Structures are given as structure tokens and as C-alpha cells.
Amino acid sequence: MISLTELSSNELKQILGIVKEIEVHEGRIADIIEKAKKRTSALSVEIHTPRLPRSIQPSLRDLIKTVLSKAGKPLSVREIYEATLAEGYQWRSKAPLNALNVKIYTDRTFKKANPGMFVLRGK
Prior knowledge:
Layout: H1 9-42, H2 60-71, E1 75-76, H3 77-86, H4 96-106, E2 110-114, E3 117-120
Antiparallel strand pairs: 1-3, 2-3
Helix pairs in contact: 3-4
């Protein structure tokens, strides 16, 4: 091991410059690690359960009919959607509320009771 007394002033200056560079790089590394930790904690991981085959799930029409029958009162699209989830329905759509809206507004099995509220036709 070399003692500091054996080094020239130029060598000591070079060492000091290198130490300062190391400190700068360590600070940058710490910043990058901190940013990575924040990004990792902000990420949410979804675990997808396998979808049931279509033949096992009821049709969307049948499920909505069941939900509205059980409710016994007019329901909003959001309430119907939440009830389908409670029934265990596995949506294949990336925008299930939009798909449900289309189904409810276009299927003659359902009718609008009040603005935004739906019931089974004939009830």
C-alpha cells in the first residue's frame, strides 16, 4: 500500500479529481435508483384469471334479465354492470360499460323506465 506522503502534489490532485467524479456518479446512481423505485411502486400488476368458456357463461342478455329480475326496480347501467360482476360474469370487452350500454339500448328485451334507468320490457 502506498502512503499519501509518497505521492506528488499532481498525483494527489488527480486522485482528488477522481474522488469528486466518483461522488458525482454515485449521486447520479442514487437518483436513478430512486426514480426506478418510484416507477416500480407506481406500477400495478393485474393478475388475470382465466376466462370461462362462452358455453359456461350465460349470455349477456340472460344475465341482464336475471339482474333486473332480482333487483325488482329500475337500475342504471353502472348498477347493472356492478351486479354482473357480483354474479361472476367475466367481461371480454376492454370497455365493458360501453358494451353494456350498447346491449341495453339496442336490445328490445329492456326498456328505459326513467332517464338512465332500465327495466325488463313487460314488467
